[in-house]
Amino acid sequence: MFTPSGDVPDDYGDGPRLVVLPTSAGYSSSANSPARDAAETILRKRGDQPRQKQNRLIFLAPDADTELRVRDQGKTYLAWDSIVKDIEEGNLNQDIAHLNQAKRNRDTADKTLSLMIRECWKWLMAPMEDFIKGKPVLTWEAVSLPSSGQALTEAIESRLKEEEWLISAWSPIHLKNMLEKWYFKDDIEAVSAKKIFQDTCHYLYLPRLLNEGVLRSCIAKGLESEDYFGFAAAKDDKRYVGFRFGRSLSLDMLDDACLLIQKDAAIRILEEMREQERKSAEPGTFKPETTEGETGEPPSPLREDSPTRAKNDGRTASPSGSSDPGPASLKTSFFGTVSLDPVRAKMDFNVLMDEVVQQFTARLGVDVEISVEIHAKNTDGFDEGIQRSIRENCSVLKFDAAEFDES
């Protein structure tokens, strides 16, 4: 409230910030409204530095026509409050009757001032940008708040929702349209999901989201169909890791590696994956017979479900016409280990579940066991607080073992 631009934080925060302008910045519909000038100063600068996250600010301004009456009423309240204090402290020689009268006048002035404050600070202002001849131009939208009925905070939240100045639930079609308009240009088919949220905090021509969770929910909902966009946990050279399109996905966090993929590109990637699966499902073929000395590898056996193997009653024919004594032995178990980045472990573990574990659990008769090992070291040692907290959490989560030691 009444905060200079240098003291208004420039961060992502848990949500947009409401900046309350002082009585000297009254709002009017005229072009030279003091409220607009004061708000633009805070919007564009943080002290002497340019403000980066401009789309995280909303402003509440007093009404220019009533601010003088609020000032006068404030002076009246302060005067009666001063008289009461002077009588109580003995600076004024007055009897109890005069003291009680002064208290009644002070309390009446206080109530009147509270009502006038609510009536005065009624203009909710939101900065926007429109592109005119290819350049962004700052514009201000303002709506008045009701002076009664709702608490002030409730009235502000209601107005922000009605005017769509603050989005707490976003439809995937709007995200898709925004991606097509601003990001998927010049053959660009993928963009960082985290950058999308950061841009909505920076630029006034983009939607103002309540927090990152709104974007994550929108992405998860959009991935349930093939109508909007694709998703990948990362990109390794030309391969999209953890690719998702038309399949649901739980997103607990977004990092710099997470990508949103343009719809047509996602369709192409999905078709390429399906084609690869079809090829891998086809019967195996033999290379010309060579000795192990020529290639370093013996001839590859056919798949167990190969028609060629079935026709030979379980004996695999070789190019020279000879037969193997029987089918190759079946592998009956699997064991694998992997190290995860602790910063993005939630996302990576989701990818592991989808790409590896579900390949087993989707088949009947497959028993799967998953164990997690956590190793943490700190040369300065762990204090008692974190030790106690982690032990309690591990106990609740039913860890088989959870111990700190000095090694």
Layout of strands and helices, then pairs:
Elements: E1 17-20, H1 34-44, E2 45-46, E3 49-50, E4 57-62, H2 67-88, H3 96-120, E5 121-132, E6 135-144, H4 152-162, H5 172-182, E7 190-192, H6 193-202, H7 212-222, E8 229-232, E9 234-236, E10 239-241, E11 259-262, H8 263-281, H9 292-295, H10 307-311, H11 345-361, H12 384-396
Describe the protein in words.
With 407 residues, this protein is α+β, with helices and mostly antiparallel strands. The protein contains twelve helices and eleven strands. The chain has a four-stranded mixed β-sheet with strand order 1-4-5-6. Strand 2 (45-46) and strand 3 form a beta hairpin. Helix 2 (67-88) runs antiparallel to helix 3 (96-120). It is elongated and about 110 Å long.
The order of strands across the largest sheet is: 1-4-5-6
- Beta fraction: 5-15%
* Biggest sheet details: 4 strands, mixed
What structural class do the secondary elements suggest?
Answer: alpha+beta
Mean pLDDT: 85
Distance between the termini: 52 Å
The whole-angstrom Rg is 34 Å
What's the helical proportion of residues? 25-40%
Number of helices: 12
In the predicted model, the low-confidence regions spanning at least 5 consecutive residues are 285-323
Secondary-structure element sequence?
EHEEEHHEEHHEHHEEEEHHHHH
**Tally of strands:** 11
General form: elongated
